[in-house]
Design goal:
The complex is a heterodimer of chains A (102) and B (471). Chain A is mainly alpha-helical and 102 residues long. Chain A has a domain of 39 residues: Histone, subunit A, CATH 1.10.20. In chain A, 32% of the residues lie in helices and 4% in strands. Chain A has a two-stranded antiparallel sheet with strand order 1-2. The radius of gyration of chain A is 23 Å and the shape is flat. Chain B has one domain: Alpha-Beta Complex (Amidase signature (AS) enzymes), CATH 3.90.1300.10. In chain B, α9 packs across α10. Chain B is globular and about 60 Å long. Chain B starts with 6 loop residues before the first helix and ends in a 12-residue tail after the last helix. The chains are: A mainly alpha (102), B alpha/beta (471). Chain A: Its EC number is 6.3.5.-. Chain A: This is Aspartyl/glutamyl-tRNA(Asn/Gln) amidotransferase subunit C. Chain A: InterPro entries: Asp/Glu-ADT_sf_sub_c (IPR036113), GatC (IPR003837).
Chain lengths: 102, 471
């Protein structure tokens, strides 16, 4: 199994991917603890799984379909949808700009 | 106290007008006022006047045919959205979140006439086994307030043990119903994956999460499961398997039922007093006519690694939705433990590692299913411990990632396979702390497990004892 050592660089990369802001102290603690965890879960390597198929649905259900119809029972009003948002403008959510202005 | 009575006894008393829903609410709030400041089981307590108003409304609309849950106060782990009632998942990320809709389990209980009085403490997002990973202060064990009530559902379990509600709804991803049930000396049912709708349950790990009851007894759990179980069009993974009248199947004799005793679960690493209590429980089952046989259930040691690949991977995906834009706060408010799980999962799913971790774990899952099926073909249930040790002192688990993971050793494989498991008290240690055991059954065999538990509880006193905090 391909298991790399968890370094501060790995932690920084994963933190960025996961959008998890870390302080320097947290980063140090995380490098140690994720390292221990990854080492621990890598024990799985020793389990023979050749010719074994994966299971993703334990109860044996297969594709479950429904009609593609609007369910009015589950619709929010605009006010309900916005009620928990910190920043709104004219009935919309406000998000930070993704692109730099030139 | 009224809260000592079973659900069915309370329902009878209400039907005969011996007591009213208001009497129960009044007593419960009195107990909460005295006890909760000592154990911190609640994150959000519904205003007493509001609960009383609902109780009065229930008192006026009572009909003979109503559900036995009608008029009874209950609590939910704060992992379910409840329209109009703050829902935090024990994280500051959702500190001020008031959901605009309700989980199916909440709606079903409201329809049955039960009265929600609180949202309970837990490890944030279900990430933990001690209710220490919470932003709302730890929940203390009602039997010894210097120790953990277990987790992740420490709040609901501590509340039931302390008689702060008649029943509770927990959520079990790797042991979060069973672990606190064992450490608080009560009864908790992890249902078969899909038995109860997950719609509106704040997802931790979607292929493992299950919604189930926590109560004083197996009998009470049966009554709750009858109400909350069943197919839900809003959860595609909820099962079309018919809901059995679980409470009607409790009384049958367990004579001739076959129980497996897996030796791998009783090896070194298990606390001696826990082993002794479960061996004694084995004798009780035998005296009731059940046949208990030693078996081998190999691969137990792979359970924790598989779980700690699947669960963090799925949680890294599920918690990606918390962006602080539509609701909730910024991601920097995740606790260190939650950040660690998200990042471990992100790492395991990242390019180049998926096959080695997630895919490999899904293969291991198939092998676990095979091993459990081999045994459950010949047995009605498997008798096993819930936790390797007694309730830990605060700080013991949180500071040590491996010890923290090992607390889940006996519970996680059940989630990996999707089986039901009933955890219930089976004694006390020399320090006065409760000990739990679990009965693991075939897919959708909740009625068998509840009948075994009920028969056991008819002949044993453990579930009737009051914790120290109530004295």
């Amino acid at each position: 199994m391909k298991t790399a050592k968890i370094t501060p660089v790995t932690v920084q990369k994963v933190a960025r991917l996961a959008r998890v802001p870390l302080t320097k102290t947290q980063e140090k603690d995380m490098t140690k603890k994720i390292g221990v965890t990854v080492q621990y879960i890598s024990q799985l390597e020793s389990l023979p799984t050749k010719d074994v198929t994966e299971t993703s649905q334990v109860a044996g259900l297969e594709n479950v379909y429904r009609e593609d119809e609007i369910d009015t029972e589950r619709m929010f009003t605009q006010e309900q949808a916005l009620a928990n948002a910190k920043r709104t403008h004219n009935g919309f959510f406000v998000v930070d700009a993704v692109f730099d202005e030139k | 106290m009224l809260a000592d009575f079973s659900i069915i006894e309370l329902a009878k008393k209400m039907r005969s007008k011996e007591i009213s829903p208001m009497d129960v609410i009044t007593e419960i709030y009195e107990t909460i006022g005295k006890i909760d400041k000592k154990i911190n089981a609640f994150i959000t307590l519904v205003d007493k006047e509001q609960a009383l108003r609902i109780a009065q409304k229930r008192a006026k609309t009572r009909e003979a045919a109503r559900s036995p849950l009608f008029g009874l106060p209950y609590v939910m782990k704060d992992a379910y959205v409840t329209a109009g009632v703050r829902t935090t998942a024990a994280s500051k990320v959702l500190d001020d979140f008031v959901p605009p809709y309700s989980a199916t389990v909440h709606r079903k209980l409201e329809d049955a006439g039960a009265i929600l009085i609180g949202k309970m403490n837990m490890d944030a997002w279900g990430h933990g086994a001690s209710t220490e990973n919470t932003d709302y202060g730890v929940t203390k064990n009602p039997w010894d307030i210097t120790r953990s009530a277990g987790g992740s559902g420490g709040g609901p379990a501590a509340a039931i043990a302390s008689r702060l509600a008649i029943f509770a709804i927990g959520e079990d991803t790797g042991g979060s119903i069973r672990n606190p049930a064992a450490w608080c000396g009560i009864t908790g049912l992890k249902v078969t994956y899909g038995r109860v709708s997950r719609y509106g349950a704040i997802a931790y790990a979607s292929s493992l999460d299950s919604v189930g009851p926590t109560a004083k007894t197996a009998e009470d759990c049966a009554h709750v499961l009858e109400v909350i179980g069943g197919k839900d069009p809003y959860d595609a993974t909820s099962s079309p398997q018919p809901v059995v009248r679980y409470s009607g199947e409790l009384q049958g004799s367990i004579r001739g039922k076959k129980i497996a005793f897996p030796k791998e679960f009783f090896k070194e690493g298990l606390d001696g007093e826990i082993r002794k209590a479960i061996v004694e429980a084995r004798r009780v089952f035998e005296s009731l006519g059940a046949v208990v046989e030693d078996v081998s259930l190999p691969m137990l040691e792979y359970g924790v690694p598989v779980y700690y690949i699947l669960a963090p991977s799925e949680t890294s995906s599920n918690l990606a939705r918390y962006d602080g834009i539509r609701y909730g706060n910024e991601r920097e408010l995740f606790t260190q433990e939650t950040k660690r799980r998200i990042m471990t999962g992100t790492y395991a799913l990242s390019s180049g590692y998926y096959d080695a971790y997630y895919k490999k774990a899904q293969k291991a899952r198939s092998i676990f299913i095979e091993k459990y099926t081999d045994i459950l073909q010949h047995f009605d249930a498997i008798l096993a411990p819930v936790t390797p040790g007694m309730p830990p002192k605060f700080g013991e688990l949180l500071d040590d990632p491996v010890k923290n993971m090992m607390a889940d050793l006996y519970t996680v494989t059940v989630n990996i396979v999707g089986l039901p498991s009933l955890a219930l008290a089976c004694g006390f240690g020399s320090s006065g702390l409760p000990i739990g055991m679990q009965l693991i059954g075939r897919m959708f065999s909740e009625s068998t497990l509840l009948a075994l538990g009920h028969n056991y509880q008819k002949t044993t006193p453990w579930h009737k004892k009051h914790p120290g905090v109530l004295a």
